[in-house]
């Protein structure tokens, strides 16, 4: 089966750096997605990692270690608008582009 | 704006009603999806359509009936729902249903079953 774990909630201060972890167990690996979802809104794509290492995209970076079944999303220079849920997802083994989502990490950024 | 629209945004229905949710994507994608998002639960995939053909039914009860008349439109027909079906229903699309492609989500329909 497949399982995804991420912390339920995190808090951080404006201007700081926060790391949101995700561990996964999957039979067969086809990459890992991170999505951002503001309350009451649609999830929006942040990153996709299929190879080990860090991928940087502005203030957001995503890291993957396939051997450890581990990923993290790094948010730098936090802004109030970064308060949202961050969803980790992996494609299901075989078949179609069926994403298995974690429960999400709700990040609250305080002044 | 992600290029995926959903109507209505909010819906309240009784258990004996029949209603439909509509999704439209303007991205030229070939795959469309229905997800259910309940409070404090992960997003759950319900259905996958590839080029108007249903390719995945994730053990969804028959009171939910999807329809995909063309690759730009997706419907979810609802009948005799239960209160536990109250949730946010999200539609998504991607370039293809094969492989790992980014999915673009609509804003969702907040459904309340009374």
Descriptive overview:
The complex is a heterodimer of chains A (111) and B (114). By secondary structure, chain A is mostly beta strands. Chain A has strands at residues 3-5, 9-13, 18-25, 32-37, 44-49, 53-57, 60-65, 70-75, 84-91, 99-101, 105-110. In chain A, strands 2, 4, 5, 9, 10 and 11 form a six-stranded mixed sheet that branches. Chain A starts with a strand and ends with a strand. With 114 residues, chain B is mainly β. Chain B is 0% helix and 56% strand. Chain B is built from no helices and eleven strands. Chain B has strands spanning 4-7, 10-13, 18-25, 31-37, 44-50, 53-57, 64-70, 73-79, 87-94, 104-105, 109-113. In chain B, strands 2, 4, 5, 6, 9, 10 and 11 form a seven-stranded mixed sheet that branches. In chain B, a hairpin with a 2-residue loop joins strand 7 and strand 8 (73-79). The N and C termini of chain B lie far apart (31 Å). The model of chain B has no long low-confidence stretch (mean pLDDT 92). Chains A and B meet through strand 5, strand 9 and strand 10 of A and strand 5 and strand 10 of B.
């Amino acid at each position: 089966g497949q399982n995804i774990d991420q912390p339920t909630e995190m808090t951080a201060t404006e201007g700081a750096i926060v790391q949101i972890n995700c561990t996964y167990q999957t039979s067969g690996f086809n990459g890992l997605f991170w999505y951002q979802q503001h309350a009451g809104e649609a999830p929006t794509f942040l990153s996709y990692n299929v190879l080990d290492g860090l991928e940087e995209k502005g203030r957001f970076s995503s890291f993957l270690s396939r051997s450890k079944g581990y990923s993290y999303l790094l948010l730098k220079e936090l802004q109030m608008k970064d308060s949202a849920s961050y969803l980790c997802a992996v494609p299901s083994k075989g078949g179609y582009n069926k994403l298995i989502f974690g429960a999400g990490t709700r990040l609250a950024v305080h002044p | 704006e992600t290029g995926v629209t959903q109507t209505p945004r909010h819906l309240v229905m009784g258990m004996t009603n029949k209603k439909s949710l509509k999704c439209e994507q303007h991205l030229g994608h070939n795959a469309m999806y229905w997800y259910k998002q309940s409070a404090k639960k992960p997003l759950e995939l319900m259905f996958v359509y590839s080029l108007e053909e249903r390719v995945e039914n994730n053990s969804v009860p028959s009171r939910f009936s999807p329809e995909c008349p063309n690759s730009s439109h997706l419907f979810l027909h609802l009948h005799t729902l239960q209160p536990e079906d109250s949730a946010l229903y999200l539609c998504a699309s991607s370039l293809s249903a094969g492989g790992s492609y980014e999915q673009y989500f609509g804003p969702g329909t907040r459904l309340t079953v009374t």
